[in-house]
Design a protein that fits this description.
Number of strands: 0
Number of domains: 1
Strand content: under 5%
Number of helices: 7
Radius of gyration: 19 Å
Largest sheet: none
Oligomer: single chain
């Protein structure tokens, strides 16, 4: 399948940072693969960035992998190796959340955008106007999910007992 047009990409990306993502997507299309690219927002906001960009599956995967790392490290601590458990947790979390995810975020987003375009084109073949309309609705950004998570965290924190 040919690479989608810049217009279709832009419809899914939305108005925020469109030029940045279009430049990356063009490089990926020209090369035939997604190049590694550092993405600073993901370093600081990982899960929230995925939620903001409506990539709910990847937000969940980042949370689950992070929790798995914490559980494995906790098991190492329970086995009687507290220093190793802490070191494993710090190293794996840093490698995953501060290296892997920021290096792959653009590629994950590119794949997500292309998949949305393919799905819409498959569902609405030949109807470019309806395709663009649908892509505008399912794409773009959203503050709703990140703000809901923040609100949930605030509520949960307020339910904790005060420190002794």
């Amino acid at each position: 399948m040919n690479a989608p047009s810049d217009d279709l990409y832009a419809d899914v990306i939305g108005p925020t940072n469109t030029k940045y993502y279009l430049a990356y997507f063009k490089r990926a299309d020209e090369r035939g693969y997604t190049p590694l690219a550092w993405h600073w927002p993901v370093v600081f906001l990982d899960v929230f960035w995925f939620l903001y960009r409506k990539q709910y599956r990847w937000a969940g995967i980042v949370i689950l992998v992070s929790l798995l790392i914490v559980v494995v490290a906790g098991q190492i601590v329970r086995m009687g190796y507290p220093d190793i458990g802490v070191a494993v947790q710090l190293l794996l979390l840093a490698a995953f959340k501060l290296v892997y995810v920021p290096l792959r975020a653009n590629a994950l987003y590119y794949d997500w955008v292309k998949r949305r375009i393919e799905l819409v084109q498959g569902a609405l073949p030949g109807d470019v106007t309806q395709q663009k309309s649908t892509l505008l609705k399912i794409g773009g950004t959203s503050y709703t999910a990140p703000l809901m998570i923040v609100a949930l965290l605030v509520i949960l924190a307020s339910l904790l007992p005060p420190p002794a």
